[in-house]
Amino acid sequence: MLGEYRIAGRRAADIAASVEAGVATGALAPGALLPPMRELAGVLGVNPNTVAAAYRTLRERGVIETDGRRGSRVRGRPASAPRDELRMALPPGARDVASGNPDVRLLPGLEGALAQAARRYAQAPTLYGDDPVVPDLARLARAGFDADGVPAGPVAVTSGALDGVERVLAAHLRPGDAVAVEDPGWGSVLDLAAALGLRVVPVEVDDDGPVVPSVERVLAQGVRALLVTARAQNPTGAAVSARRAVELRGLLARHPEVLVVDDDHGHAIVDLPLHSLGGVTRHWALVRSTAKAYGPDLRLAVLTGDPVTLDRVRGRQRLGPGWVSRLLQYAVVELWTSGAVDAAAVARSYGERRDGLVAALRERGVRAYGRSGMNVWVPVADETGAVTRLLSAGWAVAPGSRYRVESGPGVRVTVSGLQPGDVSGLADALAAAVRPATGGRFD
């Protein structure tokens, strides 16, 4: 069952640590079946409840998964091995269209904003007890939310979108709770759910966002939360349309106990309007990141939601990092007020490359999707083969396995590094590498 590896320990914490050590060293391979709890308890000479507690800890940490009578196994990809780290080395001369990074040519310089932030700090240094959110940032963020029709709510600041999502989930959910996530969807969210001990329930996605019958099904199954990418969905480029938002809001109104989290990481890089699902249920949040428009190293996102959720998020934040650096907050205020990013021009630039690639693939008989943002999703019949053939042709794409739960295979192409003259060659390589899959949506 475990080969030569022997689990050790007399306490639950020690047993869990022994299993984690085996996973970390590779002695316990992904998919390895762990001994039944009573069997391991007999070998270790401990109470079965002790082993049960150890296994429970391991499940909550995302190290193992349990499937009823089939027993407990090491997860195929433990939460300690993020999906983004599962990437192939880039051969010399190959073009990287896999990383998911924004076009650095469209990012503003930060030197002016940071210098202005330093000047503001010099006039009034931040001290313990100061408001964790800079008033100017809160005002600008709230005005932006109001302009996009986001329901009224307080504002918090987190260290990026994923930090905000994690804090909202942790404010309401506990290990074992079911959370509905787009499939295909953001790999980091799938990893985060596993690390929090949450049970992922996949939701189908099409160009207009989560598919209504699929959402209806998972709500009937009793999911505690629904995560939705408002626009520039990663990896498919989906964006919640006005009609789809109305349908989903009507459905969610019948499930007021469900936590709804909107991820608006595409703010300022897309030209499609925001259609938020917030405010329908008792607890909700919308997270708006600055990373895609202003640079990944500007680790800041603004967050709004219902008062209870925001109070819990800010209360727990006070016991950890305390606050997001006000220097960064001052810098974002400067970037927002100075008009450092021409959102319409950025959206147009990404759109020309994205739409151009989708159209070129269509001309070659290859289905592809990319309604908004910087990514194009291409369904394939053989994911590994397609990735390998493209790499041989000089193009490194992201394998769809990083983003999928149950949906069909595919590859993700990030267009941000493309020049106009690159589109035709990349489309040729994709057409030669993939065998178009049959079916609808993103299968």
Description of the molecule:
By secondary structure, the chain is of the alpha/beta class. The protein contains 15 helices and 15 strands. Strand 6 (199-206) and strand 7 (209-210) form a beta hairpin. Helix 2 (37-44) packs across helix 3 (48-60) and helix 6 packs across helix 11. The longest helix is centred in the last third of the chain and has 21 residues, at 343-363. It is globular. It starts with 11 loop residues before the first helix and ends in a 10-residue tail after the last helix. The model has no long low-confidence stretch (mean pLDDT 92).
Q: Runs with pLDDT <50, length 5+?
A: none
Strand order of the largest sheet: 4-11-10-9-8-5-6-7
Overall number of strands: 15
What is the overall shape? globular
Outline the biggest β-sheet.
8 strands, mixed
So what's the oligomer here?
single chain
Strand content: 5-15%
Helix content: 25-40%
**Helix and strand pattern:** HHHEEEHHEHEHEEHEHEEHEHHHEHEEEH
Count of separate DSSP helical elements: 15
Distance between the termini: 35 Å
* Overall radius of gyration: 23 Å
Overall mean pLDDT stands at: 92
Computed structural class:
alpha/beta
